[in-house]
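Quick question, first post here. What does this chain look like in 3D?
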Amino acid sequence: MPGAVVPTVRIQAEDFDVAAEIAKMTQGRADIGAVVTFSGLCRDEAGRLAALEL
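> Answer (accepted):
Ran it through. Tokens below.
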């Protein structure tokens, strides 16, 4: 049986395919009861943004 799923957080500027990412995380796994995702955008703060909190 596969090990526990480790939470993953990525911040990136490039576009990505949410469905493909979910497929990668769940491939070969029958023990996952749910998948929750969050996708967001950050405003351009003219270089003044120092931190993000989730």
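Residues 12 and 54 are 15 Å apart (CA to CA).
The helical segments are 18-26.
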